[in-house]
């Protein structure tokens, strides 16, 4: 059947990623007033369509379609009302029924708009649940959105955030990898990049924690190296990863490899002089262990900044 109406583009939903996932989100952001006004206008349009469809000359099939259009109008109105009240479960139920009816009556314009809402509302509500540390609820929302469009990178990313906060690391990483793949496929490089960073941050944090003791044992160093090796199955290392690899190798008495790893980190490093000091410090300690005192002194001179200044100067005074 020829489509009976077309909807104007709806521009009330947020189409860009939030600058900060954890910033406060208001109820207005979840159900923007302009969107709700347009949704209400859509309900009125559906009523008009149902009225125009009625005709004594209609065949039984057309009469049945008129009933379906009326049901579509009712389901949509109920979905809008539930969305206004932030009743996500009810909103999803009515939107999905409305989508079925729109498809059944060949109302493709309506179907496309409903489909948009079934992707954008889960994103908004999922972000709100993450902000509230309600990770199970967030997971439910992002999975709902993915039921209707698996190509949306941010929905995979949000699902990954929920899972990683639920200590479901393997599943979280797979969701992040899906975000990267879909981001690259759809040109959403921003989401692909933040998903890449989130995977890397997770494993680097684990390596850091394994080494965060006064004098790490070889076993703890091995644990850190394991985390970094697992990270490289998914993403490339950054300067931080090379630093923790260097530190772990130093505590495993692999001094030349430690120096090489730290220099790789320095090649990638783009930060302050005081933060750069830690790379030089681990290189300096490795040279001390190799009994290359002059090379060690040169590194400690470059490490004598920020938190490493006192320890570096101690080496310079005693070597």
Describe it for me?
This protein has 319 residues and is an all-alpha fold. It has 2 domains: 1-131; 225-318, Serine Threonine Protein Phosphatase 5, Tetratricopeptide repeat, CATH 1.25.40. The protein is built from 15 helices and no strands. The model is unreliable at 1-33 and 48-55 (pLDDT under 50).
Quick summary of this structure?
The protein has 319 residues and is mainly α. The chain has 15 helices and no strands.
Give descriptors for this structure.
319 residues, mainly alpha, Serine Threonine Protein Phosphatase 5, Tetratricopeptide repeat, 2 domains, 15 helices, 75% helix, 0% strand, disordered N terminus
- Helix count? 15
- Low-confidence parts, pLDDT < 50 over ≥5 residues? 1-33, 48-55
Strand content: under 5%
Which structural class do the helices and strands define?
A: mainly alpha
The percent of residues in helical segments reads over 70%
User: SSE order, as H and E?
Assistant: HHHHHHHHHHHHHHH
Query: What form results from the Cα inertia axes?
Result: rod-shaped
Radius of gyration: 28 Å
Number of domains: 2
Cα(first) to Cα(last) distance is 88 Å
Mean pLDDT across all residues, rounded?
86
Biggest beta sheet summary: none
Number of strands: 0
